Amino acid sequence: MNKLIAKHFNELTTKELYEILKARAAIFIMEQNIQYQDMDDIDYESLHCFYMENNKITAYLRAFYHNNDKEIVKIGRVLTMEHKKGTGKQLLEQSLHAIKEKMSCKKISMHAQKHATGFYEKFGFKTVSDDFLEEGVVHTVMELEL
């Protein structure tokens, strides 16, 4: 099992930050062809949860307070570099634990890509919105009550 690294922005090393940004660009810009500004200043206020292997990011997500509401944490930029190996399940399980421990909140929310909603439902997330387009990809809002 992978060991989760969970750090706030100011705790990240330069190498970790660079590898996080590389991984996000590889998945969202190159693989999924989403054209958007990835570096959106939310990173400064986020808890970054990730796995590293051989100095490369293998899985990642970030968590931050939604609109500065300390009761709702939003997660996003969820990715795995290798698919269908169980890494995403491990990442989400361990990250949810780290979020509860480091960010005490009552609810975790996300804009999930529509094709991934079944995955998140396995962790107790429920769809709470209609489908919508975000950066040209169909999403839905999902929430997990704690």
Report the total helices.
3
The separation of the N and C termini measures: 25 Å
Number of strands: 8
Computed Rg: 14 Å
Order of helical and strand elements: EHEEEHEHEEE
Q: What does the overall shape look like?
A: globular
Helix content: 25-40%
Largest sheet data: 8 strands, mixed
Average pLDDT confidence is: 94
- The percentage of residues in β strands lies in 35-45%
Supply the helix-strand structural class: alpha+beta
Uncertain stretches of 5 or more adjacent residues:
none
What can you tell me about this protein's structure?
This protein has helices spanning 14-31, 87-102, 117-121; strands at 5-8, 47-53, 56-66, 69-80, 107-113, 126-127, 132-134, 137-145. Strand 2 (47-53) and strand 3 (56-66) form a beta hairpin. The mean pLDDT is 94. The two termini are 25 Å apart. The chain is α+β, with helices and mostly antiparallel strands.
In short:
The protein is an alpha+beta fold.
